[in-house]
Amino acid sequence: ILNVEQSPQSLHVQEGDSTNFTCSFPSSNFYALHWYRWETAKSPEALFVMTLNGDEKKKGRISATLNTKEGYSYLYIKGSQPEDSATYLCAFISSGNTGKLIFGQGTTLQVKP
Amino acid sequence: GAVVSQHPSWVICKSGTSVKIECRSLDFQATTMFWYRQFPKQSLMLMATSNEGSKATYEQGVEKDKFLINHASLTLSTLTVTSAHPEDSSFYICSATSGLAGGAFADEQFFGPGTRLTVL
User: 3-state SS of chain B: helix, strand, coil percent to 5?
Assistant: First the structure.
């Protein structure tokens, strides 16, 4: 059974704080890792698709890094804003079954004004 | 662009009835659509993968006769929960990919907003 773990489960920060979360996945048979942002009552929105070890991607104040050899990815948010409040999901794709996204349980971020 | 809609957003039904959930790609052609469900405090779990015009591929443990999937066009897939029971109460969400980035799976999946099913 392939296990994808995210930590922390939830996080409360003040506006302006920078924060980061972790996604751990199997270090073997890596194909791709996806990050999604999911606001309540909306569709999950793709943030990043990461495929290469050492990848670092950035979108505005949000960035992500990837270490496939040790099986983890970090998502960073610089200067958190209330509109960043959402659940952040990572999803692992194994080379053994490229048809399947295996999701972590998500990290729920609440940014207080 | 890349918007996926899902209907209904929530539904309450009596035990034993069937419920149909629609998933539409509004501005692109979806060669592949995926159906997930999420139980409280758990991860999104893939139920099945469907390609337009062919039978869906179900994940282990998902009953294909209970969860009927039809992907009759490049913009519409439906999930029918047949003879629903309280244990089928869950959050069902679909996603779609156009497969344009050279492979259907490293490509982004675009998600609908989900359907909350409650079976009484």
Answer: 0, 50, 50
Q: With beta carbons under 8 A apart, name residues in chain A contacting B34.
A: 101
- Cross-chain CB nearest to B106 (options A45, A51, A105): A51
The three-class DSSP label of residue A83 is helix
pLDDT of B86: 96
* Shortest alpha-carbon distance between residue B86 and chain A (Å): 23
A84 phi and psi, to 5 degrees? -80, -10
Sign, Cα dihedral of B2, B8, B11, B17? negative
Element (H, E) at A95: none
> What are the pLDDT tens digits along chain B (120 aa)?
689 999 999 999 999 999 999 999 998 888 889 999 999 889 999 999 998 888 899 999 999 999 999 988 899 999 999 999 999 999 999 999 876 654 444 567 899 999 999 999
Which residue reads 């929105």 in tokens? A45
Nearest to A51 by CA among A92, A23, A89: A92
3-state secondary structure labels for all residues of A34-64: EEEEECCCCCCEEEEEECCCCCEEEECCEEE
Cα A64 to Cα B65: distance, rounded to the nearest angstrom: 41
- The answer to whether residues A6 and A104 touch, using CB atoms and an 8 Å cutoff, is yes
Token duo for residue B111: 């998600």
